[in-house]
């Protein structure tokens, strides 16, 4: 595929391990803005929202690095996309972990029309709040960091 002039793209991630301590929806914090085609997509480092600055159809892909700290019973973590603080139908994915030695990558994705001023957030919720279930940033020796989430957006 060749690059088209004016194509918008961005990649965001988080260097933070995030483990909800309450039940119910929790917004995932994105704290790193790695690459963009310009100023058409921006991140609010306080709220974790992505703000769209140009109308278009966008492909959104979010990959979460999941694990838990304790417990040996299977429990789930859900992750989905919100636009303008409204849950996007059919964007939720669920993973179930049993053992604290397990790690998994869960992907949720979406193709949607976004308008200038729209905000996009990645959400998560956990079945139990006392096992350290959540997303984990990993810092291996002599290798690149493994972010707790990588979010890619591309205008198509």
Q: List the uncertain runs.
A: none
Instruction: Compute the number of helices.
Output: 0
State the CATH architecture: Sandwich
CATH class: Mainly Beta
Biggest pleated-sheet summary: 7 strands, antiparallel
**Number of structural domains:** 1
Number-wise, the strands total: 13
Strand-residue proportion: over 45%
Cα-atom Rg, whole angstroms?
16 Å
The helix content is under 10%
Distance between the termini: 12 Å
Compact description:
The chain has 156 residues and is mainly β. It is built from no helices and 13 strands. Strands 2, 4, 5, 7, 8, 9 and 11 form a seven-stranded antiparallel sheet that branches. Strands 1, 3, 6, 10, 12 and 13 form a six-stranded antiparallel sheet that branches.
Mind explaining what this structure looks like?
- This protein has a single domain, classed as Jelly Rolls (Sandwich), CATH 2.60.120.40.
- It is 0% helix and 49% strand.
- The chain is built from no helices and 13 strands.
- It has strands spanning 9-14, 26-27, 32-36, 41-43, 50-52, 56-67, 75-83, 86-87, 93-97, 103-114, 119-126, 134-135, 149-155.
- The strands form 2 sheets. Strands 2, 4, 5, 7, 8, 9 and 11 form a 7-stranded antiparallel sheet that branches. Strands 1, 3, 6, 10, 12 and 13 form a 6-stranded antiparallel sheet that branches.
Outline the secondary-structure elements.
Layout: E1 9-14, E2 26-27, E3 32-36, E4 41-43, E5 50-52, E6 56-67, E7 75-83, E8 86-87, E9 93-97, E10 103-114, E11 119-126, E12 134-135, E13 149-155
Antiparallel strand pairs: 1-3, 1-13, 2-11, 4-5, 5-11, 6-10, 6-12, 6-13, 7-8, 7-9, 7-11
